[in-house]
Write a structure and sequence with these properties.
CATH architecture of the largest domain: 2-Layer Sandwich
Helix content: 25-40%
Number of helices: 20
Distance between the termini: 34 Å
Oligomer: single chain
Structural class: alpha+beta
Number of domains: 4
Low-confidence stretches: 1-7, 276-280, 295-304
Strand content: 15-25%
Length: 535
Amino acid sequence: MRAVPEMPAEDLLRQLEEFLGADGVITDPLELEYYSADVYSAGARAALVIRPSRRAGLADAVGLLTASGYAVIPRGGGMSYTSGYIPVAAKSVVVALDRINEIVDLDTENMTITVEAGVTWQQIHNALAGTGLRLPFFGTFSGSRATVGGGMSNGALFMGTGRYGTAAEIVLGLEVITAEGRLLQTGQAAFKNGKPFYRTYGPDLTGLFVHDAGALGIKTLISMRLMRAPEHEDYASFVLTDSVCAAAALSDIARAGIAEEAYVFDPDTNRRSLDASDLAADLKRLLGVVKAQKGLFRGVREGAALVGAGRNFIADDVFTLHVVCSGNGEQAVARDLAECRRILDTHGGGEIANSIPKAARANPFEPLNGILGTKGDRWAALNAKVAHSDAHAVIAATEAIFATHASDMSRHGVTHSFLFIAISNHAFSIEPVLRWFDEWLPAHRRTPQSEYLAKLDEPGPNPGGRQLVAKIRADIVQLFAERGAASNQIGKTYPYYASLNGETARLVLDLKRSLDPNGLMNPGALGLPEFARDS
């Protein structure tokens, strides 16, 4: 049992409540447990949680806490599995930003949107519906809950990533609270008489805080660029015999710049994506497909095609590649799809029903029931971003790690799968996922819909499986570092700082010291070393 941390002094609580309101300060032990664990593991239990409903007063609260010697740890939607917001010491305060969730400005003339950090990707998607506008990158798999602030801290990607890159590519400027409670602005809004329409007048200060895992400051306001939503989109799916062919085809599609999304499922992911246990979810996807099409006839036709494909259109033990193509007209999209088909043909790919990408785009932000498998199993992912020329070797080396642990994995009920994603035309994302049966963490009990949870039985503790997963993850993280890979959602898992060249590491540490002189802003994030609190 974890030791119960000493509660903050009463006068500190009183001052925090003055800044944030009584409902903005959480001391309930069960809530502290929830906010001190992510989807993969639990850390030291935080002394308290602050969960403000407005930005006003937050900078003062952060300054008060760090002056009192408390570490402050920003938390968005809570979907991390890399210890991004897990406290490393009991004298910590988790700063939950999900209630700071207003869309502050939608500027259709200047094609920008400014939102508070707790706004979700789904919230923006819904707000832009009917405007003819869209974010270029517009959300993650977990976008019904994942926040924009968390996405900017952790390198969010997926929806639109094949053509437009990640969250980092669309941000124009930020408002950031430093460890000492200073309020900074970046981008053109930081200038006298400025507005958030441009990012790089002078040094790119915005970039300093993007993908920082909350180590350099707490993002409270984010401005992003918009684009006109494409007038037409279409989808295609293909089967390939192995990971070599699938990876090569994905790279060719990425280099051609012809898909907004391009991704590969391995055989295990195919089976899970077509799991037959949730008819209600199927019906919802079907309704989404019908609604997403322009015109009733086409919607009914596309929905009927999805139904006709059923769940048995993918054979076992094949890889599948899925693309979403979009543009301003059917002919332009048809040309891109034709090029996709030509590329897949050169790699031995066979076309199948496009149910998976069609359903994913029709309902891009589904409830996060998938935080647990359909039998109650847990999962944890890792990822490597590599050059296209390195993809095959890194995939093979990762598969070799799994092969090394195969007998132990079988004994402890641990399985694995892969997801490959194209990032614009220059990067290849490799995401190995581990699954096993184990007792749930607070996030597993609170995130899925109640009707989904009601179908599941929580497994008993599986310490052997848990330890094996930790060992395999450590081996893979080391492999990725040795191969010079990048990763998103760095958190406290990837050795970012230790992997830097000497003078670059010195510069990053100097920046950390300048913004956080006492080392109290999310200690341990980015693998940054702790330094003397009195230095």
